[in-house]
Amino acid sequence: MRARGFTLIEVVVVIVLLGIVGTMTTSIISSSMEGYNNQARREHLQSTARLAIERIQREVRHALPNSICTLNAGSCNNTGSTLYFMKVKDAGRYQDQSGVYPSTIARAPLPIPSLGASTSFDVVSGINLNAAINDWIVVYNLNNSSIYSTTNRRRQITGIATKDVDGIAGADIDVLQFASGTFPQHSPNRRFHIVEPTATLFYCQGGNLFRATSNFATPDIPIEAQPPLLLENVTACSFTYDPGSQQRAGLLRVELTITDQGETIRITQEAHVYNVS
C-alpha cells in the first residue's frame, strides 16, 4: 500500500503559521491587559487624588475666617506648596451689655478696649459649647498672618463655667474664662469662634502630600516627627488662595499632579471659604 503523511515543507509551513497566529494572539492579549492595567492605574490615581482633595476641602470648610495661609517665600496670599489654617470647633455670640440679668447675677464685663480688661465673657447663645481649657477664643479676626504671630485677637481659655440668667434654677449660659486682656474690636455680629490649640497643616515634600498639626508660632512646621501621609507619587502641588473680603467668601484652589509607572493625571479643585467674622 502507498504510505501517506506530511512532507517536511508542510510541517514547516504549519509551524510558521501557528507561530504567527500565536504571536498575534499574544500581542492582542498583552495589549488588552496593558490597556486594562493602565486604566486601572489611572482610576486608582484619580480616586486617591480626589480623596485627598476632598479631605482638604472638608477641613477647610471649618477654617477660622481669614486664617488660611498659602505660604510662598514666607508670606501669605500667594501660591505655594504649603497650606495652613486654624480649625474652628464651635462658635457663638457674646453678650454686649452691662448691668445684671433678671436673676440679679451680674453680666461679665466685656473684654473690649473701651470697657477695660476682663477675664471672661458670657455666651448668650446657650450652654454646652464645644470648648475645652487651652482652646482659643477669637473675636473678629481680619488678618491671615497676624493671627498667628500675635494674640491680641485671641485669648486662651483657662476655665469654663455656667451662669443663671433668668432666675429659674439651673444654668442658662456658658461663661468662658481666660487670661486678662482685651480684644481690639467688637465683632459687628457680637460673634466669637473657638479654635483648636494647634493649626492644621497640609504640605508637599519629597513627592508626598502630608496632613499635620503645628503650633501657632511656626505654623508651617509640623509638630509630629512623622506626620500622617495623605497622598503618594505627587510630582507637582500648589495651593492658591484669594482671601476675598468680609462681604465675599475666600476661594482656595488646589492643584495636584500625580505620576505612577508612566501614568500622569492632574486634578484642579476649588473650594469656597466662609469669611465672615
Query: Which class of secondary structure composition applies to the elements?
Result: alpha+beta
Low-confidence segments, ≥5 residues, pLDDT <50? none
| H/E element sequence | HEEEEEHEEEEEEEE
Count the strands? 13
- Give the total of domains: 2
- Percentage of β-strand residues: 35-45%
> What general form does the structure show?
elongated
Helical content class:
10-25%
Number of helices in the DSSP assignment: 2
Radius of gyration of CA atoms, rounded to a whole number? 31 Å
Whole-number average pLDDT? 83
Q: What is the straight-line distance between the termini?
A: 108 Å
Quick structural summary:
The protein has helices at residues 8-60, 146-149, and strands at residues 69-71, 79-80, 82-93, 118-123, 136-138, 154-163, 173-181, 191-205, 208-214, 229-231, 234-242, 250-260, 263-273. With 277 residues, the protein is α+β, with helices and mostly antiparallel strands. The strands form two sheets. Strands 1, 3, 4, 5, 6, 7, 8, 9 and 10 form a nine-stranded antiparallel β-sheet that branches. A four-stranded antiparallel β-sheet has the order 2-11-12-13, covered by helices on one side.
Tell me what the structure shows.
The protein is α+β, with helices and mostly antiparallel strands and 277 residues long. It folds into two domains: 53-85 and 197-273, no CATH class; 87-196, no CATH class. Helices cover 21% and strands 36% of the residues. It has helices at residues 8-60, 146-149, and strands at residues 69-71, 79-80, 82-93, 118-123, 136-138, 154-163, 173-181, 191-205, 208-214, 229-231, 234-242, 250-260, 263-273. The strands form two sheets. Strands 1, 3, 4, 5, 6, 7, 8, 9 and 10 form a nine-stranded antiparallel beta sheet that branches. It has a four-stranded antiparallel beta sheet with strand order 2-11-12-13, with helices on one face. The radius of gyration is 31 Å and the shape is elongated. The N and C termini lie far apart (108 Å).
